[in-house]
Q: What sequence folds into this?
């Protein structure tokens, strides 16, 4: 069983290389104030509920609601595609995978958690993610994040 947690602890949360793949605990996507993004769920394969955690230093607008602080899009309750407008000053959007083991707690960043981040020709990114199970299949949740043209 892979021990991604130890690798990320040693790197102080920076990306690590495992079997030739660069793994991320979290990704940071640059943005300008007013940018819009789309998060698209491609697939999940886990016994646990899967989600996408997003955070900026400021607010995000989702479905007409302004949210200050982090948001989670759960694959079982959010639409397959969700448009989000960034209301924060220019900076970086924090992107991570999250999961709920059935205890009602949003879990992230431990045990088997890791993401493979793929740059897409469209300029977006695909995230192939491991949740807290210490395996190396990176299919617990797969999603895309793409910047939208206004």
A:
């Amino acid at each position: 069983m892979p021990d991604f947690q130890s690798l990320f602890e040693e790197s102080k949360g920076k990306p690590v290389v495992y079997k030739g793949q660069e793994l991320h605990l979290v990704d940071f996507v640059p943005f300008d104030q007013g940018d819009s993004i789309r998060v698209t769920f491609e697939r999940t394969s886990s016994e646990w509920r899967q989600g996408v955690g997003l955070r900026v230093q400021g607010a995000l607008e989702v479905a007409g609601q302004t949210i200050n602080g982090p948001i989670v899009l759960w694959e079982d309750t959010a639409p397959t595609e969700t448009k989000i407008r960034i209301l924060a000053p220019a900076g970086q959007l924090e992107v991570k995978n999250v999961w709920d083991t059935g205890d009602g707690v949003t879990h992230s960043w431990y045990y088997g958690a890791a993401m493979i981040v793929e740059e897409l020709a469209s300029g977006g990114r695909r995230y192939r993610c491991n949740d807290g199970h210490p395996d190396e299949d990176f299919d617990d949740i797969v999603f895309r994040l793409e910047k939208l043209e206004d």
